[in-house]
Amino acid sequence: MDALIEIKNATLRFRIYRNRTPALKEKVIRLLSPKKVTAEEVIEFDALKNLNLSIKGGDRLGIIGLNGAGKSTMLKMIVGIYPPQKGSVHVKGKVTPLIELGTGFDHELSGRENIYLNGALLGRSFKQMRSMEDAIIEFSGLEEKIDMPIKYYSSGMMGRLAFSIGTIMEPEILLVDEVFSTGDAQFVEKARKRMAQLISKSSIVVIVSHSMEHIVQFCNRVIVLNRGVVVAEGDPAEMVDYYRANVANVPAVPAPAVIAPSPQAVAAAANAPHSVLAK
């Protein structure tokens, strides 16, 4: 079965309920105000608008855009966390989402116990997690602290454990949301190598990142999202340039000017003792 992600005319709308439980003072002001406003005033906005996208086997799709553009929301829509109000999302293949690593951790449980808990949340059986437990612990580098409650872990240690759990299996469809900066410098290098292996072995990869270096390195196709709309699509390097110039409005850095030395400076350098030119 060939992996496939097909998104057709998908619109994802969020609602914000303002002042759902107003205080007594606010209620009195509303009663005395000439302009009557209901307590459950609703604000709606489209996080994604009329999205059409076909991602097939062999695609390494990068998604770039400003904060709030809808990048992470799109990944969650593909996974099924946020179903679209309009249109459809069809996914063929087993999805491994590396989104918000560590979500679902119980801080009262040990690192070892959280391996099984997090594995269950990712849809993996107890038997699967048992067979991978040693490899997860070894990769995380937490052998000495794995039986300690994770409430005593640093944020970097929890990130290392979550990354090790999430990346232990080879997926058909890999969804990645900013997971390259997990842990210390030594672990980051290990994480990059593992991510490169996963990306090479996955049928489909979708990457959200603010690192344009990673986008160009790992992707063969990029879309630019702006306010929930795909505004450009194409070659990674070209899309990075488009994003910087037209969305992020980052000015291009001019190359440093090369100033030729004057004849007097060349002559002075030639006559100076121990100069490079004198040799």
Strand order of the largest sheet: 5-6-7-3-8-9
The number of strands is 9
Portion of residues in helices? Answer: 25-40%
Distance between the termini: 69 Å
Strand content: 15-25%
What is the radius of gyration? 26 Å
Low-confidence stretches: 274-279
SS content category: alpha/beta
> How would you describe the shape?
globular
Q: Please tell me the CATH architecture of the largest domain by its name.
A: 3-Layer(aba) Sandwich
Continuous helix count: 9
Task: Annotate the secondary structure layout.
Layout: E1 4-18, H1 24-32, E2 41-56, E3 60-64, H2 71-79, E4 86-92, E5 95-98, H3 111-121, H4 126-140, H5 155-166, E6 173-177, H6 185-201, E7 204-208, H7 212-218, E8 221-226, E9 229-234, H8 236-247, H9 263-271
Structural description of this entry:
The protein is an alpha/beta fold and 279 residues long. The chain has two domains: 1-93 and 203-251, Rossmann fold (3-Layer(aba) Sandwich); 95-174 and 183-202, 3-Layer(aba) Sandwich (Rossmann fold), CATH 3.40.50.300. The protein has nine helices and nine strands. It has helices at residues 24-32, 71-79, 111-121, 126-140, 155-166, 185-201, 212-218, 236-247, 263-271, and strands at residues 4-18, 41-56, 60-64, 86-92, 95-98, 173-177, 204-208, 221-226, 229-234. The strands form two sheets. The chain has a six-stranded mixed beta sheet with strand order 5-6-7-3-8-9, with helices on both faces. The protein has a three-stranded antiparallel beta sheet with strand order 2-1-4. β8 and β9 form a beta hairpin. It is globular and about 85 Å long. The relative contact order is 0.15. Mean pLDDT is 84; it is low at 274-279.
